């Protein structure tokens, strides 16, 4: 790395969150680390943010991304929020993260720049405020894969090693992740305001959220009801996209549901292999609360908590406020189902709508579950049209379903070529397979070899390409007697 202190880094900070009531944050600087070293740097994302890639791909950049040097215009703070964690309400906050500020991009977007693993804060609750390299690289991989899939997500700008160990069950290399987000406003932020703030604080937060994320929407006669409606709408679309991709978040607590509609927190998440709605990867989700098939229901539950927090703003009469809130939350199920059906039709190359489409889709999913068919590869195979006479594809049940599906495609006006292209655009050829992610992390953390991770990221950047080099990344892992488990390391 070379010194580039003389070259402007391109930071263009504003700090609108810091202008909220003091209740919502604590000003604090990151804790410096011993020997920051840039492990991976997202040059394309940096350029889109208006940052100087050359200047930041340096020792100076590593110092910024580690928290050793505060860039000009930044005003570091830890955000306060609460949350229902596995159904239990608790006070939370940024226990190991600091918001540097909001980067104003060349296209006039406002993006949070947050350091994750930057040291203790008043909200650390006994934690050390640090992060290990493996989980930070994992968030980098999965968040960038989600971006490639076209699913709204926070992004990863950089990971630096700290030169200091962190102590978990064993001693691990420490790291700091730089996360980029439309904002870090959460359902839990509103729960916190409702529980510990005054109505004026809650109103200030709601006004801020509206202005930041929904200012172009129609506020109607009741801005706060419209705010709830817009969050419901975005979450209905987001959760449907998760389901289309076979993504399991793993920790859908209310502090991990954003107001912006972005996916956030890539701790115990993973992508499903064999289709099973009961699939759980998280080591701590022993009851299956956040299983794949439960995600739509848990999203509605979380949104109901947001609605409860907003009640004082919805109407002066509590009964009428509850009635208004219930109506908006009830709309989630229909919105989600509409988005889910539309996406599943696209995955099957269907442009128009027919009454029997849902049963056609459900029948395929039931066959996939019965035969433990891989979720992603089943749709990949349907897209390529080269199914082998084995497993699901070798059964009479599938042959009958396939005949129904082909007849259904034949009843639409669009030509077969258009239907095939719709399927290619809707069914990824690759996802971040759990075994591939683990191999990339092992090489990077244990051997300092980032080439495995870089190749994986290159393949995941355009998952709909159906390129020859993607074929090996679509291969399933070897059978294992041990189910794959993920942990809340991030």
Automatic annotation (TrEMBL):
Cleaved signal peptide residues: none
An example molecular function term from Gene Ontology annotations: manganese ion binding
Active site residues of this protein: 255 (proton acceptor)
Function field: Nucleotidyltransferase involved in the post-translational modification of proteins. It can catalyze the addition of adenosine monophosphate (AMP) or uridine monophosphate (UMP) to a protein, resulting in modifications known as AMPylation and UMPylation.
Protein name listed in UniProt: Protein nucleotidyltransferase YdiU
EC number: 2.7.7.-, 2.7.7.108
Keyword entries, A-Z: ATP-binding, Magnesium, Manganese, Metal-binding, Nucleotide-binding, Nucleotidyltransferase, Transferase
Superkingdom field: Bacteria
Family: Belongs to the SELO family.
UniProt-annotated binding residues for Mg(2+): 256, 265
Database matches in PANTHER family: PROTEIN ADENYLYLTRANSFERASE SELO, MITOCHONDRIAL (PTHR12153:SF15), SELENOPROTEIN O (PTHR12153)
